[in-house]
Design goal:
The complex is a heterodimer of chains A (615) and B (198). Helix content of chain A is 38%, strand content 17%. Chain A is α/β, with parallel strands linked by helices. In chain A, strand 20 and strand 21 form a beta hairpin. In chain A, helix 3 packs parallel to helix 4 and helix 14 crosses helix 18. Chain A starts with 11 loop residues before the first strand and ends with a strand. Chain B has a six-stranded mixed sheet with strand order 2-3-1-4-5-6, with helices on both faces. In chain B, helix 2 links the parallel strand 4 and strand 5. The chains are: A alpha/beta (615), B alpha/beta (198). At the A-B interface, strand 8, helix 10, helix 13 and strand 20 of A face helix 1, strand 2, helix 2, strand 5 and helix 3 of B.
Chain lengths: 615, 198
């Protein structure tokens, strides 16, 4: 039995934040869950994927976040408790659905998890999705700890049903990827059979209907505001003439700072957990009693703007500070020492921070950036394209492991903004510059956001080459399936949609599928494709070696460098940058535990000095 | 209960997430408050994996520079990289077997000289325990047990409020059956190595 299904109320378990969120949903009786994977949200869905194998929970990896939310919307409108999880930028993809779903509302609780990523540990931006509350008019709940996350998710389902609209559950990486001791509650029985009552004047958002629905949303907003003021997730702690208003993980740093700085009895704290609509009456009352106020929030000044506006309404003349050059930054994540220092500075408390040891005399440590794995087929694709076109072409890329092609020696990434942008921006670059453009997109990303851009390129007669680096899985986020994956061999009943069929069906006239580990063949294919006038597509197909290992494909023989033949040209190491290589006494060697026998280096060695190990 | 802050640094694949999980589970058994966080976004792609384990009365789940009570490093250059987390009262425990980053092989950086570097570390901190943990892991049965070797050394220093027996019980209970004996042996070898360095 999956550990999150344990029906043992009261048991204490060490759970990852994302496990706690999944458990909270199960305790709330979630019956339907959808997602598109993205760090730091992915483990929520991974748990649902496994739990769905042994229960009647319905779970799917949807094609993208917009699709995930639309599927979820119908489930919730049919009365089922539904969770839809994604990373923060995924909400941008789903935003079109979200804005009008806010008008339409739901019957069964719908919780949209937005996993924000301050500091961009693995994201392209660090947008603060609390503003989606303002934009959509929907309630936002945000926990401060793993323990709280589980219970708050449960509450989010109740709140969603009370207001008959989706609730945004906003986390940050330090919730998703922290672990804490969670006390299990009872698991509510799932209701898995939905019902839909036709009611087009509530559900079909033509202008005449939407004019009414917007009114309804505002009425709901008012209800939510009243609830936010009463919510036990908006809590005031401590006593004192000074005030701190905070949210999320900042609350933990504030609590530790108050204890460390011995400010107990001098500062009271308002923590917002139900942070949209803002608990306005609560804030006004809190503000009035404080001589001065500090706002501690990562990201944008969401609370600060709200608190300042509310303070004006009550004629508050004290100081309210948050984001500024001498206090908190809008950049990156906070840490306990920064918060302690700023709290001490603002309230004039003494601080005795522990000093880091002197590190200036220690040697500089070489960087350890993430790298394409040993034997990664993306490396073979990038190598071949660079060999043919060098820096002559522009290389828009996309979001996935292959974005790591950015790093030298491959240096094969010139532009990326979001999922699917490779192919559409390629068209723009080709037209605007007249240069050759070769775009790269992964297989999962192709289905997620690449298809409309490809349709556009065909329809508008753009002259581009698109290379789909197809490694048979969503590798970056931990090997989730996608529509192009053959799930039947893993025993799942999904229908596979071959990328080549899609591309041909869209009217692309030049389509070739090739194995990138056959380097010469791939180079010829690239030459033909870029010479083709119009849209050409190469599907560069070879399974992700990490994924291959999990489905127990037999590894190939590792290779070694024959030191008698090797003349130390080092093309292998300098052009491929495969991490299986290392230098020993200035000679290139191959780590046979790391090498997976892809044989790419053996094909490019001018001395044919790289050979398979004998068994 | 006073807070104790442990930072563990490793390279993807060295098993530090399991090591912190063992400490966390052991803490639950002992009724010691525990919180942890990890950054492992691209761990499978050869990057650095860092986890923080905080025991006692503390709400944060991350550790600021200079605030680690103990620094446990599974790879020596990563231990050195994380030295900004240490203060002069920190106990530093490190494996000395290097796993050079790929940047060294392509000439974009030089792997540090470990002897002279750790001589400096020894003078900066309360205590340094440095030994070849990979060798001990191999002696225990597999290089994969490096994480247990390092846990053994950590337990010997008593720098976290978790007893040897609680950790061993958790290893017996939480690691794969076939590996329990190897893991316990690895733990003991790490413990002895640290004891010898007194």
């Amino acid at each position: 039995m999956h550990k999150l299904l344990k029906d043992n109320p009261g048991e204490k378990m060490l759970l990852l934040g994302n496990e706690a969120i999944a458990r909270g949903a199960l305790e709330a009786g979630v019956a339907f869950a959808t997602t598109y994977p993205g760090t730091p949200s992915s483990e929520i869905a991974e748990n649902f994927f496994r739990i769905a194998q042994e229960t009647d929970l319905y779970f799917e990896y949807s094609t993208n976040e917009k699709v995930a939310l639309e599927v979820a919307a119908a489930s919730a409108v049919s009365g089922l408790r539904t969770m839809c999880s994604m990373k923060h930028v995924g909400v941008n993809v789903a935003a079109d659905a979200l804005m009008t779903l806010a008008y339409v509302g739901v019957k069964g609780g719908l919780v949209l998890v937005s996993a924000d990523d301050p500091f961009m540990f693995s994201s392209q931006n660090e947008q603060d999705n609390r503003y989606y509350g303002k934009l959509s008019g929907l309630p936002i709940l945000e926990p401060s700890s793993v323990e709280e996350a589980k219970d708050m998710v449960k509450h989010a389902f109740d709140l969603s049903e009370e207001l008959q609209e989706p609730v945004i559950f906003r986390t940050t990486t330090r919730i998703n990827h922290s672990s804490g001791v969670v006390s299990l509650g009872p698991i509510r029985e799932r209701i898995t059979q939905g019902t839909f009552t036709k009611d087009p004047f509530s559900y079909v958002t033509v202008p005449a209907v939407s004019r009414n629905l917007h009114k309804k949303l505002l009425t709901n907003y008012e209800k939510a505001r009243v609830l936010a003021n009463k919510s036990h997730y908006n809590l005031i702690e401590g006593d004192g003439v000074w005030g701190i208003i905070c949210n999320g993980v900042s609350y933990n740093y504030v609590k530790d700072a108050i204890a460390d700085l011995k400010l107990t009895g001098k500062v009271k704290v308002l923590r917002t957990g139900f942070s949209h609509p803002l608990p306005d009456e609560l804030i006004k009352g809190f503000v009035k009693d404080c001589e001065k106020i500090l706002i501690v929030e990562e990201g944008e000044p969401y609370l600060e703007e709200g608190v300042k506006a509310l303070a004006q309404e009550v004629g508050y003349t004290g100081s309210i500070r948050g984001k500024s050059a001498d206090l908190f930054s809008r950049l990156y994540e906070f840490d306990p020492a920064t918060v302690r220092k700023n709290v001490a500075q603002y309230f004039g408390a003494q601080t005795q921070a522990k000093q880091s040891v002197e590190t200036a005399d220690l040697p500089e440590i070489p960087a350890r950036p993430p790298n394409l794995c040993a034997g990664c087929p993306h490396r073979a694709t990038f190598y071949a394209v660079r060999a043919v076109l060098g820096d002559e072409a522009i290389y828009p890329t996309d979001i996935g492991c292959y974005t790591l092609g950015l790093l030298p020696p491959l240096s094969m990434a010139d532009f990326v903004i979001c999922m699917g942008s490779s192919v559409s921006s390629a068209a723009g670059f080709a037209k605007a510059t007249g240069r050759k453009v070769v775009a790269f997109i992964g297989d999962s990303t192709f289905f997620h956001g690449g298809i409309p851009g490809l349709v556009n390129a065909v329809h508008n007669n753009h002259d581009i080459t698109l290379i789909v680096v197809d490694n048979g899985t969503t590798a970056m986020t931990g090997h989730q399936p996608h529509p192009g994956v053959d799930m039947a061999r893993l025993g799942y009943p999904h229908t596979r949609i071959p990328i080549e069929d899609v591309v041909k069906g869209l009217g692309v006239k030049h389509v070739v599928t090739v194995n990138p580990l056959k380097s010469k063949k791939l180079m010829e294919t690239v030459k033909e494709a870029v010479d083709f006038k119009g849209v050409s597509v190469i599907i560069s197909q070879e399974i992700c070696p990490l994924y291959a290992r999990t489905i127990e494909k037999k590894p190939k023989r590792a290779f070694y460098v024959n030191q008698e033949k090797c003349k130390n040209h080092r093309d292998c190491i300098n052009k491929l940058g495969c991490p299986a290589f290392y230098l020993e006494e200035e000679r290139v060697c191959i780590d046979e535990d790391a090498c997976i026998g892809c044989a790419l280096c053996a094909q490019i060695c001018p001395e044919n000095a790289i050979l398979p190990l004998r068994k | 209960m006073e807070a104790t802050k442990l930072i563990i640094v490793a390279v993807g694949g060295q098993g530090n997430l399991l090591a912190s999980k063992v400490l966390g589970e052991a803490a639950i058994k002992l009724g010691v408050p525990v919180r942890m966080s990890e950054i492992h976004g691209m761990a499978q792609r050869g990057g650095v994996v860092e986890s923080a384990v905080l025991f006692g009365d503390v709400h944060s789940t991350i550790i600021s520079n200079g605030e680690a009570d103990a620094l446990l490093g599974f790879e020596p250059s990563e231990t050195l990289r994380a030295m900004n987390k240490a203060n002069r009262n920190t106990t530093v425990i490190t494996n000395l077997h290097p796993l050079p980053p790929f940047t060294v092989a392509i000439g974009k950086g030089k792997y540090p000289d470990l002897d002279s570097s750790f001589k400096l570390v020894k003078e900066k901190c309360r205590r340094l325990i440095a030994f070849d943990g990979v060798k001990l892991a191999q002696d225990a049965g597999t290089v994969m047990s490096l994480n247990m070797v390092m846990l053994g050394a950590l337990a010997q220093t008593k720098s976290v409020p978790i007893s040897v027996e609680a950790i061993k019980d958790t290893i017996r209970f939480n690691t794969k059956k076939n590996f329990v004996d190897i893991n316990i042996k690895a733990f003991d070898l790490g413990y002895e190595a640290a004891a010898k360095m007194n």
